[in-house]
Design a protein that fits this description.
The protein has 370 residues and is mainly beta. It is 7% helix and 41% strand. The strands form six sheets. Strands 1, 2, 3, 6, 9, 11 and 12 form a seven-stranded antiparallel β-sheet that branches. It has a five-stranded antiparallel β-sheet with strand order 4-5-10-7-8, with no helix packed on it. A hairpin with a 3-residue loop joins β21 and β22.
Length: 370
């Protein structure tokens, strides 16, 4: 009883005004002890997974195939291993990946984003073997299940290489955009105790009706797509005609069904700020001119390359757009003779977009806009 004697207050001093405080404290200690013994991870308000890594040295083809990294800038969830270069999915959902790689002088650049060891999702390529150095970028959204892996592969042939230095030229990033809405995986919130685990003497949670074991089935504004082409689109001289959207034949993600790959158009259903990114391949002996369009032909961004050499390379562009319901977004490739977009099964040409922030009344489908 010596411990109790130490805590005994001096005469006339009240340490606790009610025994309920002691009950609350003891209950809380007991609860936290159970949580610690179960090795439950710290509570978070939502599922999170994100990483960004860089590499400060070059890699020659034939020395290694998987691109690894020596600096980790962000690794929320610890789902990325820079030593192996691999991302392993922990939370099912739609992920956005982007990478930039440097071209080694007098070498060919060919780096593939690969899912589960064999499924090529997209690639960065430059076949021009000149002395100069440059970078190529690519991005895509991919739907992942738990234990799926994603990493970058370099061609093993010694004619290929990637270049980097302390700059660095080589970066790889990815993050969870939308957790899987059909998943039964829940996550803890910051409330002290769930219903049914009431601690005597403790105040109830702020919201007695709050579902402490939330799941991603809660309705929210979601819209995302990511598509690719596996064939080239060649311009032809047919005189004046209506502009046609660039169409696609591979669909990675289409949350909400707001993108039509046949027509090549995205239609906004939830007003808000959207992020769009596209990468297009340059066809040998043809110029490249691709524009990101809104509505009937309002140009918002573009890529251009008028080099008519035989080399194949790529151009990328991205931006945020403020959209209202019914707005359309699409890519237009110059359709005149002498212009083209190049792609093949390696998927040089990709187009992605997703809702970043919905506006306040985005769930009100009856709202009218000026």
């Amino acid at each position: 009883m010596k411990f109790l004697q130490i805590l005994r207050p001096a005469a006339g001093v009240t340490l606790w005004r009610s025994s309920s405080g002691v009950s609350c404290l003891l209950g809380l200690v007991t609860c936290l002890g159970c949580v610690a013994s179960l090795n439950i991870t710290p509570m978070t308000s939502s599922p999170r997974s994100a990483f960004s890594a860089t590499r400060s040295s070059s890699v020659l083809g034939g020395t290694q195939r998987v691109v690894t990294f020596d600096r980790l800038l962000v690794n929320i969830g610890d789902d990325f291993n820079p030593d192996t270069g691999g991302f392993r999915c922990r939370l099912p959902g739609a992920y956005y990946f982007s990478f930039t790689v440097g071209k080694f002088p007098k070498k060919i650049l060919s780096v593939m984003l690969v899912k589960n060891g064999m499924e090529v999702q997209a690639m960065a390529y430059d076949g021009y073997r000149n002395q100069g150095r440059k970078v190529q970028s690519q991005s895509v959204m991919v739907s992942l299940k738990p234990m799926d892996t994603v990493y970058l592969l370099l061609q093993e042939n010694p004619e290929y290489a990637i270049y980097s230095n302390v700059g660095p030229y080589v970066t790889f990033s990815g993050y969870l955009v939308y957790p899987d809405s059909t998943s039964s995986v829940g996550y803890l919130n910051n409330h002290l105790s769930p219903p049914g685990l009431h601690i005597p003497g403790c105040p109830p949670p702020i919201d007695a009706h709050y579902d402490w074991r939330r799941t991603t089935t809660i309705e929210e504004a979601r819209s995302a797509f990511s598509v690719a082409r596996t064939s080239s689109a060649l311009g032809e001289s047919r005189g004046h005609r209506e502009r046609e959207a660039l169409s696609f034949d591979v669909e990675y993600v289409n949350i909400g069904g707001h993108f039509n790959k046949t027509s090549g158009r995205f239609i906004c259903h939830f007003p808000g700020a959207y992020f769009f990114a596209f990468t297009v391949g340059k066809h040998p002996r043809r110029a490249l001119s691709v524009k990101l369009m809104m509505g009937r032909g309002e140009v918002r961004a573009m890529v251009f390359d008028e080099d008519l050499s035989r080399r194949r390379e790529m151009q990328s562009q991205s931006l945020l757009l403020s959209l209202k319901r019914g707005d359309s977004v699409w890519l237009y490739s110059q359709q005149d003779d002498g212009y083209a977009v190049y792609s093949n099964q390696g998927r040089y040409t990709t187009f992605s977009g997703f809702l970043v922030y919905p506006y306040a009344d985005s769930m009100n489908m009856d709202r009218t806009f000026p």
